[in-house]
Amino acid sequence: MIAKVIVDVPSRATDRPFDYAIPADLYGWVEIGSRVGVPFGGRVLQGFVIGLAEFADIDESKLKPIAELLDHIPPLSPDLVELAQWISDKYCCALTTALQAMIPSALKGKADSVVTLSEDEDTALFSNAVYSEAPWLAYIRASSGPVRMAALQERFPADAAAIKQAVKLGALTEQVSIRDRLAVRKALTVFPPEQAALAQEALANYPARAAKQRDVLRYMLEHPEPIALTALVEALSTTSATIRAVADKGWITIREVEQQRDPYAGRDFKQTEPLPLTEGQQAVYEEIAEALDAESSRVFLLHGVTGSGKTEVYLQTIERCLQHERQAIVLVPEIALTPQMVERFKGRFGDSVAVLHSRLSSGERYDEWRKIREGRAQVAVGARSAVFAPFPRVGLIIIDEEHESSYKQEESPKYHARDVAVRRARQHGASVVLGSATPSLESYAAASRVLSPTQTDASASSRTPGGAALLAMPNRVGNRPLPKVHLIDMREELKAGNRSMFSRQLHEALLDRLEKGEQSVLLLNRRGYSTFVMCRSCGYTAQCPHCDISLTYHQKSRVMRCHYCGHAEQAPEKCPSCESEHIRFFGTGTQRVEEELAKLFPGIRVIRMDVDTTTEKGSHEKWLTMFGERKADVLLGTQMVAKGLDFPYVTLVGVIAADTSLHLPDFRAAEKTFQLLTQVAGRAGRHELPGEVVIQTYNPDHYAIVTAQHHDYAGFVQEELKHRRFMSYPPFCRLIVVTLSDEQLTHLITAGDKLAATLRQLAYESGVKGSIDSDGTRFIDILGPVASPIPRMKDRYRFQCMVKYRGNAGAIELLKKAIAMLSGPQGQPPVQLSVDVDPQVIL
DNA sequence: AGCACGCCGACT
DNA sequence: GTCGGCGTGCTC
């Protein structure tokens, strides 16, 4: 038998299966999805088995055997392997990158070697004076078992060559194996006597002087449950030796037991019962339930206004899904994965919920993942990568806030969780629910008939077989009104002599809430901005020496850091360019707002949430809890205060400046602004107390702001679609951005021009219409190369080409072909190439 | 990605 | 005459 193995080398040259012989003792254990250690080019690497075959594709004499099998249960199932292949195809990434993204990072094994003295070693070799006096040799001799090579390297850094030589000559035997980054945590556990009666008798006759041992045995008889050794030691203030002594006499047993790192251990989640559904919720629920009962793979776009009770619909459809003995996955944007959210799921489904998000330690994440893999969880709630939760029979995938750009991974594999979810659901006959108060234009266009057939992106609708069904929940639970939104023209404020960052109306509204003891949320929309250092005399800004980007100032450490390469330097006292002392750190903005609040409203209690105050683990949670307990009057922050929060005493939402995200050079700028305003407005008046929203802007006539004021999603979409059609942007076409980078500008220019020319030639040959204005259903257009928005990063220059296409223009295949044509015989590209299919941020 | 093999400068 | 620089090439 032959195993087809993808080795863990993420390069184009090795992005194909390699054949390995399956040794007799692993026969039947190696499956599709197994993780193995294989010899590859003189070293041992981790790899994934993606296929089994009777015969090898190459000369059998060249075959090497699989060195080891790394897990008893394969970490991946065949359907996930297939999904990885689809991702690798669609998003142009190495298959190993896609596979690796599906398993917790704890399972990223690396080669680890140990050495022992060879049994039959030629003693002459070691009697050689050079060796016999070597301290490293003495060290190996002195140790009882094999010695880790890494330990030798650390202890005797100067002797690396000699040690390698000894291995080469056969005096030392080296054994390489794959070691995981993190192991399953185990703890010694004490088990009670199996035959209590006998033990009881023994207790009575226990040697008089062994009082402590008697304590142990008595305890275990009184509490006949397994207990951690350490806990027992503490409970009886004894030592492990005493306990072992009892075990040695055979009365109790001590065994290693696998532990669960439970991030929510010790937390009591109050169990909740399903709430009665409103008419609107009921209708939506029944539609989805019908698909679940029929086990047909359908996609629903659930457009429900803020406060319309989407979460309750999720909970009850999951319930229905579980009744069919199928599992459910809930994706939530990282930022919205708050304790509040987790509580709702744990409260309804208890222990069968596994939570996966980036704030967990890698050990915790590994254990939550194992809970899914081993069938101890039926519901997975998590960020983007939870779409890969290793359930055997997925019945439902819910994507909350589906418009969030964080569902697109920025690093390779640059997948979009929404599209992966649709694909995975199809494999399992599962349904997908995309929920949002402000659906992305792509999803909305796919689900409604906004676009005529010729304008519709054909491949988008093929992504969602039969098209997505649009479900609407236009009313809030309890028919509470959406909050009244006031637009304030800040130009008028200035004219009236108000130079403060608070308009008179916002000022008054805040004062009013303070008097009533109600709470306010203030949003500072500063997407795309960060703290930077600038000289007020000469305009000098601190730049990264390796990247064309401003350094970000971190107040705590007084260090300036580059977000892209990690370069860090001390913040200067004087301007390095003009020696002036007027060098300033342009703060987060939230800080300035906080100061101003303190000045205007003496005694006001403000919680500020931004990158500075939420980096610590659990701090995010801490602030929100405090706010929930009404220990503050104002929650002030950036985007993170806009998402998913639900506090009953919040009756005022203020947006300091709505426009900052409006004029970013990104075609989604208006959409992002509309979404943010709508989302944050939705934080107000969710319960008995009515809400009010004040939006300050310099563009009170902009459609994104006006439609947000009137909670008019349809109006926004209509206007935005006009622009997208005119400019030929999604959903009227699809995009691919190829970024080329190299240390040498000349190389880069040559390669960039060549890539664009090849693409244009291939597009022309394939007969796809090349004009943007073409009314054909297929078109492809290649733009660039142009300098990237960050023209230099980590000392490498960067260019990009954009491919716009519509229909099945085969753009991805064309691109792959073009890259292959530019690459060398082993597939090595002339410069570094990175492909982003369906990019979310075009900055 | 690594690591090996392979062809040209500063040392014993 | 050798040690070693890192430029192509291959890994079942």
UniProtKB/TrEMBL annotation:
Q: What is its EC number?
A: 5.6.2.4
Reactions catalysed, semicolon-separated, are:
ATP + H2O = ADP + phosphate + H(+); Couples ATP hydrolysis with the unwinding of duplex DNA by translocating in the 3'-5' direction
Which CDD domains does this one have? DEXHc_priA (cd17929), SF2_C_priA (cd18804)
Q: Where does Zn(2+) 2 bind?
A: 544, 547, 562, 565
| PROSITE patterns for the chain | HELICASE_ATP_BIND_1, HELICASE_CTER
Q: Which GO terms describe its biological process?
A: DNA recombination; DNA replication initiation; DNA replication, synthesis of primer; double-strand break repair
* Cofactor(s) the record lists: Zn(2+)
Q: Where does the Helicase ATP-binding domain start and stop, copy by copy?
A: 291-457
Tree of life domain: Bacteria
SUPFAM superfamilies per UniProt: P-loop containing nucleoside triphosphate hydrolases
Cofactor binding mode and count: Binds 2 zinc ions per subunit.
EC main group: isomerase
GO terms (molecular function) for this protein are: 3'-5' DNA helicase activity; ATP binding; ATP hydrolysis activity; DNA binding; zinc ion binding
The residues the record assigns to binding Zn(2+) 1 are 535, 538, 575, 578
State if Isomerase is listed as a keyword: yes
Q: Which cellular component, as a GO term, is one annotated location? A: primosome complex
| The keyword Ion transport belongs to this UniProt entry's keyword annotation | no
Helicase C-terminal domain ranges (all copies): 570-724
What keywords were assigned to this record? ATP-binding, DNA replication, DNA-binding, Helicase, Hydrolase, Isomerase, Metal-binding, Nucleotide-binding, Primosome, Zinc
Family of the protein in this entry: Belongs to the helicase family. PriA subfamily.
Fill in the subunit field for this protein.
Answer: Component of the replication restart primosome.
Q: What does this protein do?
A: Initiates the restart of stalled replication forks, which reloads the replicative helicase on sites other than the origin of replication. Recognizes and binds to abandoned replication forks and remodels them to uncover a helicase loading site. Promotes assembly of the primosome at these replication forks.
The protein here is known as: Replication restart protein PriA
